[in-house]
Design a protein that fits this description.
The protein has about 100 residues and is of the alpha+beta class. It has a single domain (about 10-100), classed as Heat Shock Protein 90 (2-Layer Sandwich), CATH 3.30.565.10. It has two helices and four strands. The chain has a four-stranded antiparallel β-sheet with strand order 1-2-4-3, with helices on one face. A hairpin with a 4-residue loop joins strand 3 (about 85-90) and strand 4 (about 95-100). Helix 1 (about 10-30) packs antiparallel against helix 2 (about 75-80). The longest helix is centred in the first third of the chain and has 20 residues, at about 10-30. It is elongated. The two termini are about 15 Å apart.
Length: about 100
């Protein structure tokens, strides 16, 4: 879907960030997730929704400890590479989203 969208490397960034958000939803919620992507000529918005209620708080990026393997870096990557991103509470679950403007990565 994204091969012809955006500048050089933009589709790779979109794929990486989508993978990070989906992985987080599947690992941390055990309820599955719904992915929605909206592509327009000047931008992309990806939303990953889960359906787990009663969370103590909404996720935020944190810097993992050095010996933590490959875990804990997903939202740090999203924060660093997305043009904008956020988390919205939906009563039953949440949506974590990011937007890219399609420029060169």
């Amino acid at each position: 879907m994204l091969r012809k969208w955006g500048g050089p490397g933009a589709s790779d960034v979109a794929e990486l960030l989508t993978s990070e958000l989906v992985t987080n939803a599947l690992i941390h919620t055990e309820q599955g997730a719904v992915v929605t992507a909206t592509v327009v000529p000047d931008g992309l918005r990806v939303e990953v929704r889960d359906y787990v209620s009663g969370l103590a708080g909404l996720p935020g990026p944190h810097v993992p400890i050095a010996d933590d393997g490959t875990h804990g870096r997903g939202l740090v990557l999203v924060q660093a590479l997305a043009d904008s991103w956020g988390v919205e509470d939906h009563g039953v679950g949440k949506v974590v989203w990011f937007e890219l403007d399609g420029g060169a990565a």
